[in-house]
Amino acid sequence: MLPRNRVVLSVCGLLLIGGAIAADKNTARTPAVNAAVSASQPVRLWSAAGGTVDVRWNRDLARDLGIRIAPAQHAADARNNVGDRFALKDAGTLQFRVNNGYFGGFGTGVLQARGGYMLELADGPIALTDFRLVPRAASAKSGSSAVTRLDLVGADGQAWFYVDRLMHEMIEQDSVLAVRSSDVRISARLARRLGRPAVTGWTIAELQLSARVQRQGSGAMAVGSGIHWHGDPVPGGGVYEADLFMQEITAQYVRCQGCSGEDGSGRLAVTPSSTLRNNVNAGTRSATIPGDPRGTSRALWTASIPWYSKFSGVFPPYNNDQHPYLIWNMYRINADGSIEQIGRSGVKHAFLTTNGGCLDPDDHDSHVLGRGCDDTYSVSNNDNNNALGPRSEIIPATGQWGRCGSMFDTNCDGIANAGSADPYFQRLTVNEAQIAPTHNPGASWLFESWYAAREDIDIYNSMASLETSAQWIGGVWEFDSSGYKLGAAIDRWVSPDRPATPGRKPTLPLQPMQWNEELVADGSHAKVAVKVSRLGGGLWRYHYAVMNLDFAFVSTQGAEPNLRIVGQQGFDGFEIATSAPGAAQDLAFRDGDLTAANNWQGTQETGKVRWSTGSGAPTNSLAWGMLYSFSLTSSGAPRLGTATLSAANAATPGSFTVRTIVPASIQPGCLPRHCD
User: Fold this and answer.
1) Separation CA 417–CA 387 (nearest Å)
2) Whole-prediction pTM
3) Extents of the domains making up the chain
4) Which is it for strands 374-377 and 267-278: parallel, antiparallel or unpaired?
5) How far apart are the C-alpha atoms of 254 and 261, rounded to whole Å?
6) How many CB atoms lie within 10 A of CB 22?
7) Integer distance in angstroms from the first to the last C-alpha of the chain?
8) Spatial distance between the Cα atoms of 660 and 641, rounded to a whole number of angstroms
9) How far is CA 339 from CA 4, 178, 466, 528, in A?
10) Cβ count within 10 A of residue 605
11) How far apart are CA 71 and CA 671, in angstroms?
């Protein structure tokens, strides 16, 4: 039975920690009240001392930055054997504040490890033996007096790292302060010493904490009961609907295999920190993400969203361990106008929500996201194998996970298997040649991240992208990003805003040179976009891109919570109808993986140009979350026509027609804009 009073401490706007640790059975429900404790009630601080602290270094990144981490002193294996565990000295005590069930910031004090590390730098060592965790004074720029960071202080008394993006909760009847995950980030002091000021703030490790509560203070609050699921009726009319927004993303280099710079061919991994926010509406429309055209939900009443960690049990509303999923992609827009997806991640399984900035007191808990609540999956968390799996284990349009037979439950016994030990497993990886500016003159890049939540009414405001570029500086790739925008990255290549359709009236513009059409069928979404350029000599170049957002052709067995995905594929054919005279030239296909052996083959017949995987089970179908691009040259001028997406080799084949621009013949004696 859960305790009647629980506390979950969440640092608003910074937090989301996922998957590294399965949720404790005593995990609290989290009442979200933003009001301060009544002035008539004295504030009593909580305190914690003793316990354990776990550190999981990104040793690949440390090596790339010129830091050698000597073997840990006095350490045991951390949880899941993915780091080092140190005992906390009983002598150190850390105070913290709780306001009506919310973390209100750290007070004074210190937690000190027994043991630690010796870091070897080019100019000498840094001793992290018996390292200390000390609350950092709030910055005047933050506009808040709350202390939400911890400095990681070495034996010399210097803060070489800081710890933030924490997720705290009270467990075991409020007797243990647990930090499920947090980012250990490089301080400005260490960045200067490394001669790399640009790496200030880079995440280099994950820290987890379990500290024993010595004194319980004020601010605990009873469990709320106002959770409303998607589809629940609203008293007086209407229904609650799920609509999750992406609020902020950043991208960071985390490691590289065989990298040497602009002329290299090494493989590097890039990982985001992704912050989400639930819809804010409660009967009237307001912007959840102000300033963005997609930032306001059409759902008038916000539903709570389930956020249960895998293998944690069976819960409403779906009688399973339902949780959202996170993926990320990278694109390059080439100088010739074409686009290609050059990198893609696997699926990150969400496991807990910290519910910062909530607008209602009782519509959420630590496994339910409430109205206006925000949450963050941080870099170290998204770089953890225990939460990363293949996209093929998810049915994206329904938000279902095929747990049985998945990599986490191969024998369907309901007991979690260990994650992969490969630090590149399910990461977004790209080849240096794909991002090097000198090898791609005139190109630009986009980084995209999105959440997939069950019954989300608008998938496009759950995803966002950034313009990004990379530079090789001192042995690492540094990414500079800007221009955050909600929506799919393909919409930045070709706007979905509809151009005027060509017709007979001379007042209309010339034939459209670009087009972006959405395909929606049975709750699944895809987009076909095209850009056309005139080459001269009576020739035109057509660049097509097909983005499969959440189509999946799936065979399943059983039902939730023991659902098994027997097979899954995406589209295996793309065809355009053309009436252009003569054959198309220079057919091209791009899937971004630099492996020619699995490329789709282009063929031509009268009235059509087709690319496909061929017959039999496809090894490289266009799966969900992926973009493939296709190009051709034709003497046919651009006109509105049709394209067909197919899944001919699926267990249940499918074929779908969409409008797009195609090469067409021109009637003698007329201009394209005047002809049918």
Assistant:
1) 11
2) 0.90
3) 1-223, 233-490, 494-556+566-674
4) antiparallel
5) 15
6) 19
7) 72
8) 5
9) 55, 45, 15, 12
10) 8
11) 75
Dihedral pair phi/psi, residue 119, rounded to 5°: -100, 130
Query: Which residue has 């008038």 as its token pair?
Result: 300
User: In the numeric block, which tokens belong to residue 345?
Assistant: 């991640």
- Contact in structure between 164 and 148 (CB atoms under 8 Å): yes
Q: Which one, of 66, 59, 184, lies nearest residue 123 by Cα?
A: 66
What number of helices (H) and strands (E) belong to the chain? 5, 43
Any alpha helices (H) in 139-250, and if so which ranges? 188-194
Hey, what are 569's tokens? 């594929």
The CATH code belonging to domain 494-556+566-674 is 2.60.40.1170
32-60: pLDDT as tens digits: 333 333 445 678 999 999 999 999 999 99
pLDDT, tens only, 118-173: 999 999 999 999 999 999 875 444 445 568 899 999 999 999 999 999 877 778 88
Residue 605 near residue 660, CB atoms below 8 Å: no
Q: Could you tell me the two tokens for 30?
A: 């989290």
Residues in the chain: 676
Residue 660 and residue 576 in contact, taking contact as beta carbons nearer than 8 Å: yes
Q: What's the rounded Cα separation, in Å, for the pair 280 and 284?
A: 9
Rounded to whole angstroms, how far apart are CA atoms 196 and 184? 17
Which 3-state string (H, E, C) describes 529-573? EEEEEEEECCEEEEEEEEEECCCCEEEEECCCCCCEEEEEECECE
